[in-house]
Predict the structure.
Amino acid sequence: MTDAASPVRVDSWLWAVRVYKTRSAATTACRAGHVRVGGERAKAAQLVRPGDEIRVRIAGFDRILIVRQTITKRVSAPLAAAAADDQTPPPPPRESVPFVPVRDRGAGRPTKRERRETDRLRGRTTE
């Protein structure tokens, strides 16, 4: 760990607070433009300080993190959580589907009759 006020590289900080599994994955995300510091695209070597806002795009969604403490070494999960303030809004609610037909695993291909019933349930009539 470093002094709480000293700046650290953004890729090192993202790895240390467990946003990415490896530092090279964090560096790759920075190169691809998935990491923004203060609204600007960040290079891997850009320095972050406490109070900086970091937006990380993971799996199509943005995570918004505020730097509370700068750390360079990977630490335990409670310490990592204390080093970052997660401001990410909750994901939108999933649309509820009234009924999704499910076939048993290993049941083979559906028969023509079963396919028609499935299409009827999904509202796809072919008549």
In short: DSSP finds four helices and seven strands in the chain.
